[in-house]
Amino acid sequence: MAIDGHRRVSHCRKVGLGKSTLMKYLYGHRRVREELQIWAGNTELVVASFFFWRRGTLHQRSLSGLLRSLLYDVLRQRPDLIPDVFPNVGYLTQFELEHKEIQAAFYRLAHCSSLYDTTKFCFFIDGLDEYEETLRDDYRALVQLLLLWTQAAPHGIKLCVSSREYSVFLNIFSDDKRLRLQDLTLADMKSHVRERLKDLDEEHLAPLVDVITEKATGIFLWVALVVKSIRARLEDD
C-alpha cells in the first residue's frame, strides 16, 4: 500500500478508527518490508516514517518537522548521501539549519535522478490532518508537495500516508487510490457483536448487528461500549 508515480494510496479515517495503530503496524511489519524489497529489487531500500501530532511540539505538527525527521532517518541509514544533500555544510558536527535550507536539501534528495539507480525510498506519513496549517502552507500545499516527490522520482519513491476524511484529501486521492479503514473492519465489528450477543434469538440479533455497526461508522471502541451496555441490561433483566 503505497504512493508512487502510478498508484497513490491514502488511508482515510474518522476519529477513533485506529489509523495510527495501523500505520505503526505497517511500518514495522516484516511482510511489508519484504514486499518493498521486492519492489526495490537489487537496489538498497531506505524506509522512514513521520507521525504528525497536533498537540505535540512545533516540529511534530509542521512541514519543517516532517522534512527534518525524514532527512534524519534517510541520512542515518545512508550517511554517504550527506555531501549530496547538504553540499555546503562541510564537516561541522553541530549546526542549525533554517527551514529553507531543509526544503532545499529534500529537493536535492528527491530530484537526484542518479540516486534511484542504487536506492529506493518509502516514507510512511501518518496524520496529514494533524499538520498545523499556516498562512503560507495549508493542507493542499502539503499534499501537492508529497505528489511532487513522487512525480520527481516515480520509480524511486513510494509514500504510504493517512488522514481523516477531509475534503481536501478526498478530492486529491480518488476512490481507487485510497483505503477506508472502516470498510476493512466492518466484518470484524459484526462478528464481535454476534459473538457477544449470541444469546439473543436471530430475529432480534440480525437487525441489532446492522444498526450497531452502521451507527459506529467504523469506530470499534464505540461498538464495544454499546455491546457492553446491552449485555449489562440483558443481565439485569
TrEMBL record:
InterPro entries (alphabetical): NPHP3-like_N (IPR056884), P-loop_NTPase (IPR027417)
Top-level taxon of the source organism: Eukaryota
A Pfam cross-reference name: NPHP3_N
Keyword entries, A-Z: Repeat
SUPFAM superfamilies tied to this protein: P-loop containing nucleoside triphosphate hydrolases
Ranges of residues in domain Nephrocystin 3-like N-terminal: 14-164
Identification of the protein by name: Nephrocystin 3-like N-terminal domain-containing protein
Organism annotation: Parathielavia hyrcaniae
Lineage of source species: Eukaryota, Fungi, Dikarya, Ascomycota, Pezizomycotina
